[in-house]
Write a structure and sequence with these properties.
Blueprint: H1 2-14, H2 16-46, H3 50-80, H4 85-90, H5 92-97, H6 103-136, H7 143-170, H8 173-197, H9 204-216, H10 219-230, H11 237-240, H12 255-278
Helix pairs in contact: 1-6, 2-3, 2-6, 3-6, 3-7, 3-8, 6-7, 6-12, 7-8, 7-10, 7-12, 8-9
Length: 281
């Protein structure tokens, strides 16, 4: 497994998109830190109440992590959309699959190799945003809440990785990237629609649309639960995540739904291993 993890890292570093992603991530973090610093100074000069300052810092956290999960998701798409068919077209997969190991183990090794580096990238992104808000805007955070939020934030791109790798068994690299991006965009859109519709009261059609989209690809649902845990759960999260327009989180995913995502990932991995074992190389 260690061999495949290191090989995956070498493969990622050879791609230009990896360097571009790192540069754009650094630019985002610098601009976000500059914006948070400016807003924190404006709040301090106006001498707003502690409640207003707390609300402002929570809003910054929500917006920062929204774009952070956007970056993490596209990092997954650009690095994993050609995991199987891309290597098959280049001839690399045939050489690797010739080794005396079951194909399902090879598929899991590739998933694990990508998962490790995606988790590292997402963790750095998450910690950078949270630390920026904590240090510049003074948002109080508890270690337990921070760890729960981080764990769920990391789980979100791993779910997207699982469905993207499954698609790479059946679809060409470009087609798989488009399909995975559309699924991710649909999940993101459903969350935004739910946030907007919460102002006029919940509508049964919207609730069904959000629920079915969450079952199809639960990335946005897991992200919203991550925000809820990070911002203190029921104690503080309602201050910032119920009045942000499309970024609002009017409903919090349950623990039962989180268990569903675990089963979802297990089934997608099983389908990927099964399809790859039967694939004609």
């Amino acid at each position: 497994m260690t061999l495949y993890i290191s090989a995956t890292f070498k493969e990622l570093t050879r791609k230009r998109v990896f360097l571009v992603t790192l540069i754009l991530t650094l630019v985002f973090l610098l601009l976000f830190a500059f914006g948070a610093w400016g807003i924190a100074n404006m709040t301090g000069e106006n001498q707003g109440s502690p409640a207003n300052r707390l609300l402002s810092s929570m809003v910054l956290m929500v917006l920062g992590l929204f774009f952070a999960q956007f970056l993490a998701s596209f990092f997954v798409l650009f690095t994993a959309m050609g995991t199987i068919t891309g290597e098959q077209e280049s001839g690399l997969l045939l050489a690797v699959a010739a080794r005396p190991i079951p194909r399902w183990k090879l598929y899991l090794a590739k998933w694990l190799g990508h998962a490790v580096w995606i988790a590292v990238y997402s963790a750095v992104l998450f910690v950078s945003v949270v630390w920026t808000i904590h240090s510049l805007a003074g948002l109080p955070l508890l270690a337990e809440e921070l760890l729960r939020g981080l764990a769920l934030f990391l789980w979100m791109p791993l779910l997207l990785l699982t469905i993207t790798m499954l698609g790479s068994v059946y679809l060409p690299m470009l087609g798989n990237g488009i399909c995975a991006a559309l699924l991710y965009g649909l999940a993101l859109f459903s969350g935004l629609v739910e946030g907007v519709s919460s102002y006029g009261g919940s509508h049964p059609a919207v609730e069904k649309f959000v629920f079915l989209t969450g079952l199809l690809l639960p990335t946005d649902t897991v992200y919203r639960r991550s925000l809820f845990e990070l911002l203190g759960g029921a104690d503080w999260a309602g201050l910032a995540i119920t009045d942000l327009g499309p970024f609002s989180v009017p409903s919090v995913p349950s623990n039962a739904f989180l268990l569903y995502t675990v089963g979802y990932a297990a089934v997608m991995l099983w389908l990927g291993c099964r399809a790859f074992s039967r694939k004609d190389l």
